[in-house]
C-alpha cells in the first residue's frame, strides 16, 4: 500500500526528544525559546511564538487582532475547518468568499465584494502550500482599515515574491501536525513583526501570566507573578520544540525533495487532457504540502471511481480540500450561500501520495496506475 503522506522523522528527532526528557525540563522552556528564535530567523520574521497547534495559533491571532463578537472576518470556505472555527471562537462571523479555480486560493475580487462596515479582518489561507496573493490582500486591508491574518498551516518553507512565508504580514500561523511538511507531533507557531503582538501572544498562550515558569525558576530573588488578563494554556512542550529544531534544519531539503516528486507528476500528467495540474505562477513558490489534481468534465472516470480504482491498486488518495459551509456545524452560515467554484473543486479534485523518501518505483506506479485507469476507460467508452 502506498500511503498518502508520512512525516519525515529520523533517529535525530528521536534522540533530541530523548535528550530533552532527560534534562528534566519538558514543557515550554529553553528548547521552545531556541525553536522560536530559529523559526523567526528561518522565515525572516522579527518574532515567533510557539503554541500547541495551528488552531490555537489562529485563535490567539484573532484575539490580538482585536476581532470580537459581531465582527466579520472574510475567509475561504474551502479550507480545513479550523480556519473558520478560529473566527467562531471569538464570537465573530466567518464570511465565506470564493476561491480561484487555478490556485484554490481566495479570489481578491470576491473578497472585496464581501467587505462591509462590520468587516474586521481578512484571513487568507495558503492552500496546500501555494501562497495566496498576499500583496493584493494587504492592499485591500490597508484601503479598508482591516487586519490581515495568514493561515499558513500548510505553507512552511513556501515563498511569495522571493520572501519566505512568515515575513510578509503581522500575524502568520503555522502548523506542525504530521500531515504538514515538518512535524512536532502537534504544534504551531505565530510569526509577527510587531513587538506589541509578540508580547501579548506570549501572555495569552500561558494563562496571561506576567512571568514565565522559566524566569521564575531561574530567578535569584523572590518573584511573584500576576495574571494580567484571562489567558489560555496553549503551550508547546520542550520535547516537541527539540524535535522541531531538527525538523527545521531539514526543511529546505524536504521542500526540494517534495518539489522533485511534484515535477515528476507534472511531467507525466501534462499529456493527459482530463487533468488540471497544480498551478505556480512567477513569484510563487510552493512546498507542495499536497499534490492535488482536478478532474475535468471530459474525464471518462468520475472522481470517486478513480479514487476507488487507485485504492484497489494499493494507492491511497484523498478528495480535495473540504468546504466548511457544507459541514453540519456550518449549516446556518451556509443558508443562501453560493460558492460554485469551491464546491466544484471539493467534488472533483484528488490528492495523490507525496512523501519523502518516495521511491522512483512508487512514483512511477502511481503515475502508471492513474494514467492507465483514465486511458483504459477512454478506450472502453469508445467501443
Ligand atoms: C491543518 C490546518 C489547520 C489546523 O492545524 P492544526 O495544527 O492541526 O491545528 C488550520 N488551517 C489549515 C489550512 C490547515 O491545513
Protein described:
- It is built from 13 helices and 14 strands.
- The protein is an alpha/beta fold.
- It has two domains: about 10-250, Aspartate Aminotransferase, domain 2 (3-Layer(aba) Sandwich); about 250-380, Aspartate Aminotransferase, domain 1 (Alpha-Beta Complex), CATH 3.90.1150.
- A seven-stranded mixed sheet has the order 1-9-8-5-4-2-3, sandwiched between helices.
- α6 (about 135-145) links the parallel β4 and β5.
- α2 packs parallel to α9 and α3 (about 55-65) crosses α4.
- It is globular and about 80 Å long.
- The chain starts with 10 loop residues before the first helix and ends with a helix.
- The structure holds pyridoxal-5'-phosphate.
- Pyridoxal-5'-phosphate binds near residues 53, 54, 55 and 125.
Instruction: Give the total of beta strands.
Output: 14
- Give the % helix: 40-55%
Biggest beta sheet summary = 7 strands, mixed
CATH superfamily of the largest domain: Type I PLP-dependent aspartate aminotransferase-like (Major domain)
Strand arrangement within the widest β-sheet reads 1-9-8-5-4-2-3
Strand content: 5-15%
Radius of gyration based on Cα positions: 22 Å
User: How many DSSP H or I helices?
Assistant: 13
Q: Sum up the overall morphology in one term.
A: globular
The succession of helices and strands, N to C, reads: HHEHEHEHEHEEEEEHHHEEEHEHHEH
Instruction: Predict the CATH topology of the largest domain.
Output: Aspartate Aminotransferase, domain 2
CATH class of the largest domain: Alpha Beta
Q: Distance N terminus to C terminus?
A: 32 Å
Q: What CATH architecture of the largest domain would you give?
A: 3-Layer(aba) Sandwich
Low-confidence stretches: none
Mean pLDDT rating: 96
Number of domains: 2
Structural class, by secondary structure, is: alpha/beta
Task: Catalogue the ligands.
Answer: pyridoxal-5'-phosphate
